[in-house]
From TrEMBL:
It is a peripheral membrane protein. This is GTPase Era. Keywords: Cell membrane, Cytoplasm, GTP-binding, Membrane, Nucleotide-binding, Ribosome biogenesis, RNA-binding, rRNA-binding. It holds the Pfam family MMR_HSR1. GO terms for cellular component: cytosol; plasma membrane. It comes from Marivita cryptomonadis. The keyword GTP-binding applies. Residues 38-42 are annotated as: G2. Residues 12-19 are annotated as: G1.
Amino acid sequence: MTTRAGFVALIGEPNAGKSTLTNQMVGAKVSIVTHKVQTTRARIRGVAIEGDAQIVLVDTPGLFKPRRRLDRAMVAAAWSGASDADIVVLLIEAHRGITEGVEAILENLGEVVGKRPVALAINKIDRVEAPRLLALTQQMNEKFPFTETFLISAEKGHGVNALRKWLAAELPESPWLYPEDQIADLPLRMIASEMTREKLTLRLHQELPYQLTVETEHWEERDDGSARIDQIIYVVRDGHKGIVLGNKGETIKAISKAAREELEEFLGRRIHLFMQVKVREKWLDEAERYSEMGLDFKDGNG
């Protein structure tokens, strides 16, 4: 029996649906999904199995015009994910069409991917009528020589099986890269941090979520099979700390409860989750924080 395995990079603008597609293809929640843009910071790898093929999905940060060091490191991580992959899938949103951001990605795409196959996945197809979809498909394929085009709804699962089957057939012959039961290669500490950061992002609708980071500082396995997890939420100013804590600590309690419940479901066991909020004005300029997020600090240089 011949097995196939390889890396597939999902690229696109922020909020195009890359994380949702990763989770849909893997069949489990491995990537942070919120309605705010720029939530995926590290290149999260989810592992999907299709027949004899193992598809390692690299869910890159959204590609956008960077303003700060963190932005630049995220964009560099996205292009690096694309340049290292066996296959690249460009996701665009059906209802937004060819935006300035998509044009900018297309300008760089050929140079980054070389001769490797690139598929186009037009997402959120339930939001537009068929004639508009067909026109968009034609326009995109005139702008770039895509190997295949897929019309999908990552959220509802439409078209995802066809994409997964195509990816499985296109990957190089290779032994599997991960054990069969492993769905993500992120350390559990980072998954725990990402889950908490997702809850913070959903709960706090201001600009604040981009000014904070979560670190899982301590992880203790207990004799009864449960685990104690200690996390620190770093914010850049005192006012932000108050927002995260909320009135009489209500906000942090709600966030902690939601993160703990999701962790328990993900890990299949009891979790004791403890959180602290600390002000660290310069965390956006500290190399250590970037390593925690799986980003390269040097990539943030202008």
